[in-house]
Amino acid sequence: MLNDPLANVTSLVLNNEAIGKSECLIKPASRLIKEILKVMKENGYVGEFKEVEDGRGNYIKLALTGNINKCGVIKPRYSVKSKDFEKFERRYLPAKDIGILLVSTPKGVMTHYDAKSKKTGGRLLAYCY
């Protein structure tokens, strides 16, 4: 039974990166998982991905690039204002300007850099570096 599908995805991606695989299958597929993978792809952490329909919740075939050192979910999903991102950067990322925090905002899922530039807050979902 899956209690947190997003946590399962991040651990699956991290484990497959660690053993050197070039792709992994993510099951089940959800809209939030696809949005997070899209943001990670835009920032160069993962490669292409596509959703494959199998009639049982579908799955995502993800190409790995070997650029992830660590990724994980942030629990609890803290609410954060646009001016408070630095506190969480220090907590979850190794150094300044290394890595991204993934934030769910009213304008969609984006990195904390985009959220700061658009002056919007949201809920922290995950980190990746």
Characterize the structure shown.
It is a single chain. With 129 residues, the chain is α+β, with helices and mostly antiparallel strands. The protein folds into 2 domains: 5-64, Ribosomal Protein S8, Chain: A, domain 1 (2-Layer Sandwich), CATH 3.30.1370; 71-128, Dna Ligase, domain 1, CATH 3.30.1490. Helix content is 31%, strand content 30%. It has 4 helices and 8 strands. Strand 6 (100-105) and strand 7 form a beta hairpin. The longest helix has 14 residues, at 5-18. The two termini are 28 Å apart.
SSE order: HEHEEEEHEEHE
**How does the major sheet shape up?**
5 strands, antiparallel
Task: Work out the strand percent.
Answer: 25-35%
Number of H/I helices: 4
Counted beta strands:
8
Radius of gyration, CA atoms, in whole angstroms? 14 Å
Overall shape: it is globular
Q: Helix amount, in percent? A: 25-40%
Key features of this structure:
129 residues, alpha+beta, Ribosomal Protein S8, Chain: A, domain 1, Dna Ligase, domain 1, five-stranded antiparallel β-sheet, three-stranded antiparallel β-sheet, 4 helices, 31% helix, 30% strand
Quick description:
The protein has four helices and eight strands; from the N terminus they run αβαββββαββαβ.
Topology:
Blueprint (H helix, E strand, L loop, with lengths): L4 H14 L4 E4 L4 H12 L3 E7 L6 E6 L6 E3 L5 E2 L4 H8 L7 E6 L2 E4 H6 L4 E7 L1
Antiparallel strand pairs: 1-3, 2-3, 4-8, 5-8, 6-7, 6-8
